[in-house]
Amino acid sequence: MFGFLAPGSGTSVLHSRRAAASRCGRRRLVARANVDVTKFPSEGSKDAVDVNKQPQEYVQLKEMLKGVSIFMIGMMGSGKSAVGKVLAQQIGYAYIDTDEVIQESMKMPITDIFEEHGEAGFRQVESVVIQQVSPYVRTVVSAGGGAVLNQENWGHMQNGLVVWLDPSVETIYERVKGDASRPLLKVDDPKAMIESILRERESLYEQADVKIGIEPEEGIEVVAFNTARGLTRFIEANPPKSAAHRPVGL
Ligand code: S3P
């Protein structure tokens, strides 16, 4: 809605055939995945936040968002889920973690999905989940770190505002080391891998509407607060185009 325009893509016959074949494979995998995102949206407001103690920034952000959803992107270990949950709770939004939806629907952990279907299989299901959640309003969606690799995902995320959480490689490494749940980091030198993945994806993450730098000592609450402020500033600088201001007939 407020987002940037995704770069256009030319379509050749070859590309169309490949796309058709991959759509076919995707249908099979997705049928198996039995994706049902409707099980996931939970009312962010349920864990009642005391509105009298609630920082004004969240109240203001909620008003300004007018129900528009938020997509959290960034590297593994950047805090998307933890920060997304706090943000959702503070502004009374539902919260969805695409990795959780994928694992639940495939009935297996992400490492097993990578082993059985490869990264490509995982990405197909991930795209379907993002497509399915993208029409939701009043929802914070935490997307897997690699969701930015697929251009279609960007198209879907433009239904909302996109936030990039950007801690340093060192911080990411400290958070994910010893965690066996990320197949891409099951390598001899996970830190070098983090560096390499970040280098590859940085220009994609940069496409976010809002970038939140994270200092190593900053906790979840601080980052969530900074995210709310970043979003408010972004909306102030990019007010949504109201239908009332559009020329008649468009
Ligand atoms: C991935 C990130 C993971 C998960 C999968 C692949 C990535 O999610 O989707 O292991 O490619 O960066 P988190 O970013 O939530 O860890």
TrEMBL record:
Tell me which EC number(s) this protein carries. 2.7.1.71
Per its UniProt entry, what is the enzyme's top EC class, as one word? transferase
Top-level lineage group: Eukaryota
Alphabetically list the UniProt keywords: Amino-acid biosynthesis, Aromatic amino acid biosynthesis, ATP-binding, Kinase, Nucleotide-binding, Transferase
UniProt GO MF annotations: ATP binding; shikimate kinase activity
Q: What Pfam families does the entry give?
A: SKI
Substrates-to-products reaction catalysed: shikimate + ATP = 3-phosphoshikimate + ADP + H(+)
Which pathway does the database say it acts in?
Metabolic intermediate biosynthesis; chorismate biosynthesis; chorismate from D-erythrose 4-phosphate and phosphoenolpyruvate: step 5/7
Q: Which GO terms describe its biological process?
A: amino acid biosynthetic process; aromatic amino acid family biosynthetic process
**Cellular component terms (Gene Ontology):** cytosol
Under InterPro entries, the record lists:
P-loop_NTPase, Shikimate/glucono_kinase, Shikimate_kinase/TSH1, Shikimate_kinase_CS
Q: Give the record's family classification.
A: Belongs to the shikimate kinase family.
Q: What is this protein called?
A: shikimate kinase
